[in-house]
Design a protein that fits this description.
This protein is of the alpha/beta class and 242 residues long. Helices cover 50% and strands 11% of the residues. The chain contains 10 helices and 6 strands, in the order βααββββααβαααααα. It has helices at 17-27, 33-37, 95-115, 117-121, 138-148, 156-179, 188-197, 203-216, 220-225, 228-240, and strands spanning 9-14, 39-40, 55-59, 79-83, 88-92, 130-132. A 6-stranded mixed beta sheet has the order 2-3-1-4-5-6. A hairpin with a 4-residue loop joins strand 4 (79-83) and strand 5. Helix 6 (156-179) packs across helix 8 (203-216). The longest helix has 24 residues, at 156-179. Mean pLDDT is 76; it is low at 1-7 and 119-123.
Length: 242
């Protein structure tokens, strides 16, 4: 569920394709039919990242323990990297921050290419592009507690289905609150008030519900966070006009 953050794609990598595919199958429960069609299980011998996939598995060679960090810069959206070898989860910045980082990186790349091929080849991804995830979501914790208790009434698949419907109900309620606001953009104080009303003060919970709401109404993140990418484009055009 932590991979449902706003505008995020996910890559699961490691050395055992069975472990990778088992996790991919579980994560696919939270995807729509259209998103599943843009996903794939692992393929032995294929460790190249496909930027147009929502969910994918990468089987690394025995001599490798990590994926190429530069692949993140080819992603269409911020990426979540799940390492089965190290049992770790890392995520890129939220979409509005990720766009700003990539814009800066593109400008630096152009400058270095103008300076010479060797300098351009030495360009590295931003050091702050990824951060380790410690998911403190109360929603996820409650789900894991349910899954940990043996139940003769509901299967794991049913519990996951119930959880998805719960996310959708909360997302629809969040959209109703947003619709009641007539201003085109939402202020920070108003968002904080709405989160308190809906018991979404936990940051991870809010991101999960926002990701669900974004699927129901694409473009919602622009109203909440603003069009950072568009602002950067306009600023760049303005500077070039001088």
């Amino acid at each position: 569920p932590s991979t449902r953050r706003l505008g995020v794609v996910t890559a699961v990598f490691g050395h055992d394709p069975r472990d990778i595919d088992h996790l991919l199958s579980n994560l696919a429960v939270f995807l729509s039919t259209a998103e599943r069609l843009r996903s794939r299980l692992s393929v032995v011998g294929v460790d190249q990242y496909s930027p147009d996939l929502v969910l994918q598995g990468l089987v690394l060679a025995d001599t490798r323990a990590e994926v190429d960090a530069d692949m993140l810069l080819r992603a269409l959206h911020p990426a979540t990297l799940i390492s089965m070898t190290r049992q770790s989860v890392r995520q890129a910045k939220p979409r509005h921050e990720f766009s700003a980082l990539l814009k800066d990186r593109e400008s630096n790349e152009i400058n270095l290419m103008n300076a010479g091929a060797k300098a351009a080849a030495a360009l590295q991804p931003p050091p702050n592009l990824l951060h380790s995830v410690v998911d403190d979501s109360l929603l996820v914790r409650a789900l894991l507690e349910q899954l940990a208790r043996p139940s003769s009434l509901h299967s794991v698949q049913e519990l996951l289905s119930f959880f998805c419907r719960k996310l959708q109900r909360k997302a629809l309620l969040l959209l109703e609150y947003f619709d009641a606001v007539r201003e085109p953009s939402l202020g920070e104080s108003l968002i904080k008030s709405i989160r308190k009303e809906l018991n979404l003060t936990n940051e991870s919970d809010f991101r999960i519900i926002m990701a669900t709401a974004e699927k129901l109404r694409p473009g919602l993140h622009v109203r909440v966070h603003g069009d950072v990418h568009g602002k950067l484009d306009r600023l760049s055009d303005m500077l070039l006009s001088f």
